[in-house]
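anyone else get weird line breaks when pasting these?? whatever heres mine. first is seq + tokens for prot A
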Amino acid sequence: MEPRHSFQASPTTRRSFLRTGALALSGLGVADVLRLRARAQETGRSAEDTAVILLWLPGGPPHMETYDMKPDAPAEYRGDFKPIPTNAPGVQVCELLPRHARVADRFTLIRSVAHDFADHGGGHKRFLTGRDPKEPTGFVNDYPMVGSMAAKVREGRNVGLPNYISGVDQNRSDIDVFSFGAAYLGSSYGPFPVIGDPNSPKFAIKNLVMNAALASQRDDRETLLHGFDQLRRQTDRSGVMDAMDEYGRKAMQLMTSEKARIAFDLSHEPDALRDRYGRHPWGQRALLARRLVEAGSSWVTMVLENPTPPGATMPLYSCYNWDSHAVNCHIFDDARYRLPIYDQAVTALVEDLYDRGLDKKVLLIVTGEFGRTPRISYSEGTATKVKQPGRDHWPSAMSMLVAGGGMRTGQVVGSTDSKGEHPKDRPLTPNDLWATAFRHLGIDTEKTFPDHGGRPMSILPYGEPIRELLGS
């Protein structure tokens, strides 16, 4: 389904990470990528087995309907819903998030992050790079996305699957849809894209294409897995691995890796666990993220836009992503539709990380590029044709969830004023969040890389790890 209210129209498809025709080695794109990386060996490496999962909520989730409710604010601010208590003393969430309430002792809410860029493009670039963009609009990065910087520092790690992976909807894989570009680090440090709904019977990792003969047969998971086996056998028999140079061998190792094959295959998970995450794109992406970091990937970004389960139709009153202007959706009806799905996916991931002993290895971050206007506005809906409530862009206040990473949990960091308009206590920036994430990964944020002009650029220009999160 194409986005009905997307903030970027007509996204184009990014070139395949591995091109069809894997045995035509002269055209093996990933080998070229590996060569480019080897020519720029100015990296450090974290000895720690740590990872980050970023659940990205593009469009900007409403803080007043999720994690920072203001029940005592005037009616034109507070909205339709009430806060409920959680199992963590003093922590409240929206009544549409009852599963959050049961596991709040395992996460922290941050309510006081803000920045100055209200456009989606500017907001994406500001939040995801840690720097003010040169242009306040548009999604092409001037500076590397944080996941790309982590991939650059950790390029020496060879774990049998990509170090940096993203999951996106169909037709949303272009690197500039969400400002995921690597800028001056080079395109080889962008994410390896996993495209489509992992719950679909026809889901396949289209960027791990086996060979040209299979290209017309990739109709289901069984064909994809057969392709892995066939390529491995053909490669071993032909002796072609011995004829390839170092980088080609690494490329083929990725494509024929048993570890990669298993990590990307959700059929290895019990049905009960898949049901617990939810049989919808968000739930299965969250589960896939857990599998990928458990297998050794350093950074996995999963984009949560349209939550509609397979076979269902998105309601007219809802929005494709989190961009809840009144012209796009009825914000309260949209929340009633999307928040229970969000509630299930996020809390299942939080619980699963803890249940599997990954709560120290993996830092989970759930956020979008900004919040929504505290004051409600009204317009005629483009789809519904009736007057309805919504909230507009608001970078001056936003809320987010963090869990795992050995961090302190069961708390709220920061606050906003009585109407949810601006930080009141403990004002923070996106850089403080990323400084915390890089600290978890063992990455020095003062490490520099040359930009296009050869000037040394630090990973972050400023920002301090959030002290309230740091473990003892």
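and prot B, same format (seq, then tokens)
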Amino acid sequence: MPDGTGEHTPVDRRPALLIVNAEVEGVADVDVRCRDGRVVDVGRGLDAAPGEHVLDACGGALLPGLNDHHIHLFALAAARRSVKCGPPDVTTFAELQAALEAAPGEDWIRGVGYHESVAGLLDSRSLDALRGDRPVRIQHRSGKMWFVNSLAARRLGIDTPNGQLFRLDGLLRKRLAEDEDLGRSVEETSRLLAGYGIAGITDATYTNDSTTEAIYRQLNLCQQVNLMGDESLPSGTVKIMLDDAALPDVDHLQERIAKAHARKRRVAFHCVTRTELVFALTALRAAGTLAGDRIEHAAVTDAATMGLLQEVSGEAGHVTVVTQPNFIAERGDRYLRDVPPEDHASLYRCRGFLEAGLPLGGGTDAPYGDPDPWAAMRAAVERQTPDGQVVGADEKLTPEQALALFLAPLDDPGGAPRRVEIGAAADFCVLTRPWNGARSALAANLVAECVKA
């Protein structure tokens, strides 16, 4: 049983497995037999074969394992060992100072989750005043920027006038020695995700490359991994970062899309502003789409942009949106303060995409969001900010629709939800109660076991 965080729930791996007394799609007392990673029989009253492990679901719902369609696993592993420097843990200058003073160790301090509401936009001077005796690097919660103090800049060999490093994750990774505990930390984080019932992830980090792929192959993970990244990867979706302040040349972008499509590789655009979304869709309209091209986040999608998205996606639904409703629950109050009121109903939409006929998948964007997919489902249903305000009431999903965001195949977010049926992969999330009792809670502590046969 998990402890509410999922941290201590192991994955039960059995080559020969019989799950008994489960609820499957609303039907009670169902037995499911698995062999070599596949479901081979579904029925009632199945007898255990010699050497077959029997798992009693105790009447709980048996679901396919969840898929998080947008996460950053290595960054999540690093964040779990980092100093929290932003809301809700740190909200004032004094709290930031205390957090940095309390940082364990004697060398590098790595901070995450910073937001300028805490103490403005950080620079090397302000960080030197906060902690000048150790090299400090703090990541903005958007993931776009790192702030470093003077000592960190010298150690990195970076000549920066203000200590603000924009989209330089790749350079930081090259300049910093790889953590000897990286593998262990990532595998521990994988077990955390398994405790939430997650059986598959798409690592959406745009700097993933052939080296990243090689590291992944060496790890013992609980999840199947779908890797996005740059063009050096032999396959997989090409992740394209867009930033309002530094949009790429349009012709070069269209050429990049065309080259990816020629290699049968999809493209995925990071779009958290209306400008970024319109820019991406315009490029896709000119270059053409490939089924499964993706828009990540689509954080602001008004009626006009929704129409453009439908046009580019076409009747075949070639363009998929992967959204993170958990940000409404985590950051909604700040959105209501910082985003113009006319855009509130356009934030991290859910039902609107479905009604527009667009494929819709769900992700958490961890570590930039909470890695708990159940919290994301709950946010899609309730649309409530931390203070209880509702953002975009018309965008609410039913619990079943919210669950479906995380049940689609790993390579087809927004596709038909996977089912517990003969021939299906034997990756399961076993709940402590039937679905009718779970649908109103949508909480991580409902996960009894993560099973991979």
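btw re prot B: The CA atoms of residues 267 and 311 lie 17 Å apart. Residues 75-175 form a domain with the Diaminopimelate Epimerase; Chain A, domain 1 fold (CATH 3.10.310.70).
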